[in-house]
Design goal:
- This is Low molecular weight phosphotyrosine protein phosphatase.
- Keywords: Cytoplasm, Hydrolase, Protein phosphatase.
- InterPro entries: LMW_PTPase (IPR050438), Ptyr_pPase (IPR023485), Ptyr_pPase_sf (IPR036196), Tyr_Pase_low_mol_wt_mml (IPR002115), Tyr_phospatase_low_mol_wt (IPR017867).
- The chain is of the alpha/beta class.
- It has one domain: Rossmann fold, CATH 3.40.50.2300.
- The chain contains five helices and four strands, in the order βαβααβαβα.
- The longest helix is centred in the first third of the chain and has 15 residues, at 19-33.
- Bound molecules: the ligand N#Cc1ccccc1-c1cc(NCCCN2CCCCC2)c2ccccc2n1.
- The ligand N#Cc1ccccc1-c1cc(NCCCN2CCCCC2)c2ccccc2n1 is lined by residues 14-15, 17-18, 50-51, 130, 132-133.
Length: 145
């Protein structure tokens, strides 16, 4: 009997240096711990060109190191081919979702299921917010308004 086709998932956020490389690294560790890593193609990408070529954000790297999750990634932008070569494209917020759907609609016969990663959260936290400016700036903003 032929082996089933590998499953595939692409995690996407705005810059591919914070949320999506962490999601990729954690998912890969979960697959490895479950003994099914060889059955998955796992990657991450950006909707934007902001950080192409960059390593993951230092805060995320520190967090992954603290929790023993290997993370190694070079930021890239999502490509037309991704919309037909990945079974799932899972993103972080509504901006990512609308941008991905806009890009997908430029691809003839795209097959990827484009969803919010948070839609799988048992605690129903659908949106994974962009941490780029950190909580301090949000605190500052809250003191100003
Ligand atoms: N944009 C926005 C934005 C809005 C709200 C919260 C966060 C962000 C934000 C900003 C970033 N880079 C600074 C602006 C980049 N430049 C914007 C104008 C074009 C030239 C590039 C990020 C970089 C990597 C990952 C996530 C990021 N997220």
């Amino acid at each position: 009997m032929a082996a089933p086709a590998p499953k595939s998932v692409l995690f996407v956020c705005l810059g591919n240096i914070c949320r999506s490389p962490i999601a990729e690294a954690v998912f890969r560790k979960m697959a490895m711990d479950a003994g099914v890593a060889d059955k998955w193609r796992i990657d991450s990408a950006a909707t934007s060109t902001y950080e192409i070529g960059s390593s993951p954000d230092h805060r995320g790297q520190a967090c992954m190191k603290k929790h023993g999750v290997p993370m190694s990634h070079v930021a890239r932008q999502v490509t037309k081919a991704d919309f037909t070569s990945f079974e799932y494209i899972l993103c972080m917020d509504e901006n990512n979702l609308s941008e991905l759907n806009r890009k997908a609609n430029l691809v003839k016969n795209y097959t990827a299921k484009i969803e919010l990663l948070g839609s799988y959260d048992p605690q129903k936290q659908r949106i994974i917010q962009d941490p780029y400016y950190g909580s301090r700036i949000m605190w500052l903003a809250s003191t100003l308004w």
